[in-house]
Amino acid sequence: MRFTKYKCPSSRYCLFSFQGNNSCLYCGVDYRDMQTIWDKLYDFYRKHVPYHLRPGNLWWIFRGWAWDRFTTVKPRTLDHTWCDRRLLIRELVFETAAKFLETEGPKTQAEWDWQKEHNPNFYDAWHETQALIDWWKNSDMDGDEYEEQMLNGAVKLIKLSDYYWT
Ligand SMILES: [Zn+2]
Question: Using CA atoms, how far apart are residues 8 and 155, in angstroms rounded to an integer?
Answer without folding.
Answer: 63
